[in-house]
Specification:
single chain; alpha+beta; two-stranded antiparallel sheet; 3 helices; Aminoacyl-tRNA hydrolase; hydrolase; Pep_chain_release_fac_I; translation release factor activity
């Protein structure tokens, strides 16, 4: 059991990560046809004891289609020739996603434009309309 630090207060257990390997497409020539360099990482968000509920909810929202119905986050990396590099890349992406989910979005407080700004806007529109009105066809008497 090795804990992987995500933030100062959150760490996930390495046993929660399930990695599988497959043949990758992309760079590598004949080498890519013989080695399992693509890495598929599965992380069970729904049943993770190390993530707070609020983080799980935001992570599920951020993950989008990468999250299965069972609440398992699936990430794949096959950009490099090396399995080790792909493995590190997919883990880094998982940690970045979890870190992003730990950020609590600020509540939006609706504001009203001031009377002066509304008046300036209307005056600007009137001025612009006058400029455009002057661009019409010229009548010769």
């Amino acid at each position: 059991m090795v804990l992987i630090p995500v933030t100062r207060h959150i760490a996930i257990d390495s046993d929660e990560l399930v990695e599988s390997y497959a043949r990758a497409s992309g760079p590598g020539g004949q080498h890519v046809n013989t080695t399992d360099s693509a890495v598929m990482l599965r992380f069970d968000v729904a049943n993770s004891p190390n993530l707070p509920e609020a983080v799980k909810l935001r992570l599920a929202e951020l993950a989008g289609s990468r999250l299965t119905r069972d609440g398992v986050l699936v990430l794949r990396s096959d950009g490099a020739r090396s399995q080790l590099v792909n493995r590190q890349d997919v883990r880094d992406r998982l940690l970045a996603l979890i870190r992003e989910a730990t950020i609590v979005p600020k509540k939006r407080r609706p504001t009203k434009p001031t009377k002066a700004s509304q008046q300036r806007r209307v005056e600007g529109k009137a001025k612009r309309a006058a400029v455009k009105a002057g661009r019409g066809r010229v009548k010769f008497d």
